[in-house]
User: What shape does this take?
Amino acid sequence: MGKLHSVRLPHFSGSAEQSTRKIPAPEEVAVSMLQHIGAPCEPCVAVGDKVKIGQKIGDSEAFMSTPVHASVSGVVKEIKDVMNVGGRLVKTVVITNDNKNDMYEGIKPPKADTREEFIKAVRESGAVGLGGAGFPTHVKLGFDKSKVTIDYLLLNGAECEPYITSDYRELMENADNVLAGIDLIMTKLEIPNAIIGIEADKPQAIDKLTKLCVRYPNIKVQKLPSAYPQGAEKVLVHTLTGRIVGEGKLPSDVGCMVMNVSTTGFIYNYIKTGVPLVQRRITIDGNIVNSPANFFVPVGTLLHSIVGFADVRRQPDRIVLGGPMMGACAFDPDTPLGKTNNAVLLFGDTPVRKTTACIRCGRCVRACAVNLQPTELESAYDARDAEALDRLKVNLCMNCGACSFVCPAKRPLAEKNQLAKDFLRQTKMKQQGK
Assistant: This one.
């Protein structure tokens, strides 16, 4: 990988020092059956069924899948296909809230004495990576000990995109559970060491966690440079351990497991209470938001409910789910928010990017954290040259958007890379006769 490049971004962290608030539960939620990487769930309820908070409403027998639960109590109004921000139609359970806030009777702390019981419990919790990727947590924890040796659990507290502060608030408000969750995972999976990586622009979190880690001799806090994309998995592994995750490889291939700090905090709370993942913390911010803040939001809350609750100066002309670098623009006010949504950003007076010719300045090359050549990749994709894309290692692209951010010609380099990866994948499948 060589030297890690990065870019400097403005922080715009106006919500950082505001305690998380809870919004009133919406009158209706739409809980998607696909809130993770992998196979979608199938609904296990029917229209007209009464459900309670924490009750399982969707599951799958697929290995790469995790169940979903009701986030409000009420009645199943309908089960319909809803298009997610990725353009995929997904079965979605719509629940009309009865405003009774009844918890499901079956909720209780799970049995998690052994490694196998612990991993099974994490699956039943509905846990996924809360940093945005949505990888099923039980799959990550269930590595084959006969083939993989993990000696470092790395905790991602970088939160390097502008505006988003949900993980920072987790560290400030729920640090004890975060550390207890880390210790629990280390104990159950026999991982000897853990490092919590926190960017240097969060000194209060660094100080707080460092003091608390006195109780945990095998957990340490490491200050990360305030640079983007410091929170990317491969970058984090290299910064914290010096190890390189190669093309097509996973952190586990170099003895590391990477988890988000909010995920570990949730896991500990679930093992303690048995309450599954039915709400999450979301940052609401943007250039038209008067009072940026973090809110606990039931999973399945419709986007318009969040926008209506936000303190905005005027109507947004663009709504981004996630960060401004890697998030996705919402195209429907009825988009349901899921487990992986860590921010809703509201923008006005959004500039229109006018693309001009590449001037060969090399800024995109110097910005790429994995030393790719974005201009060459763009040319190869435009020529539909699969061999060149493979040779130029397009699959190493993390879609961090740094190349597009620094390009003076405003070329959609990061977007082209994602199209190029899909083109290369389809080309290889055709060559293999699949």
Q: What stands out?
A: The two ends are 32 Å apart (CA to CA). The chain has a mean pLDDT of 94. DSSP finds 13 helices and 17 strands in the chain.
